Amino acid sequence: MRYFLAKTCLLFWLILCVVACNPQVGDTVREIDEKQYQLAQSYKAQGRVEEALSAFMRVIDARLDAAESHLEAGNIYLQSLKDPVRAIYHFDRFLQLNPNSAQAKQVSQLIETAQKEFVRQLPAEPYQGGLDRIDLMDLIEHLKKENASLKQDLARAQQGLTALKSVAGTATTTASSSTLSPARQAASQNPLNGPQTHTVQSGDTLSTISQRYYGTPSRYMDIYQANRDRLKTANALKIGQQLRIP
To answer: Any idea which fold 136-245 has?
Structure first.
């Protein structure tokens, strides 16, 4: 019995010694303590970007919680390898694994930066004939504003139609005509007889010129297409320049 107790105490003492000498026993190794993670940081400091990325990817393959490695990989793809699509994937994985991180806001901004970089990398060739590569982000913003304007026009037209029906029961076509904006009424009553010209003035844009001649800003592209020999881009208007109005 005494021998058994002595043997048990000795075994327990040995276990305590092992744990004391190696604090990671019984605990999950932190990601930043992984040998591959530390190796990746060493490669990164030496400017060996591709080797650093490979080491970070080995950590990601080995762990389900490799948030820091995803963040590091995303930065390498975005800043060094100019691959915004893969960068977005790794930034997104970081936010999924660590949504409450103090870095979450910064990583969200990195995702926006990567998205803009992706748009800038789109090939220019499809647009050189017609738009001469108008900045796509500006075009998207312009279309958003135009869409909001059209929605407002539609709402006003519907309100006018309802009011006319309630007062006199006027036909739908008559009501729709009466609720058009003054610029559109003028355009419909005085249709253009063949091409005209317009002299660019301060503050003019293709949208405002389209509104003036057609009663809607949405035909700015028709004006641009008719003046491709005079305009490098849709925004390259010069005061005093003569534009064709198709």
So the answer is: Membrane-bound Lytic Murein Transglycosylase D; Chain A (3.10.350)
- Contact between 175 and 165 (Cβ < 8 Å): yes
> What's the pTM value of the predicted model, to 2 decimals?
0.43
Domain boundaries, the chain: 2-120, 136-245
Both ends of the chain: CA-CA distance in Å? 108
- Return the sign of the alpha-carbon dihedral for residues 29, 33, 34, 35: negative
Which tens digit of pLDDT belongs to each residue from 4-42? 444 554 555 555 454 444 444 345 789 999 999 999 999
Dihedral-angle region of residue 87 (phi above 0 means left; psi in -120 to 50 means alpha; beta otherwise): alpha
Q: Which residues contact 177 (CB under 8 A, 6 or more apart)?
A: 185, 188
Could you give the CA distance from residue 231 to residue 238 in angstroms, rounded to a whole number? 9
Q: 2-120 in CATH: which number?
A: 1.25.40.10
Using CA atoms, how far residue 65 sits from 27, 32, 53, 147, 231, in Å, is 15, 11, 17, 43, 53
- Range list of β-strands (E), 63-206: 196-199
131 pLDDT tier (thresholds 50, 70, 90): very low
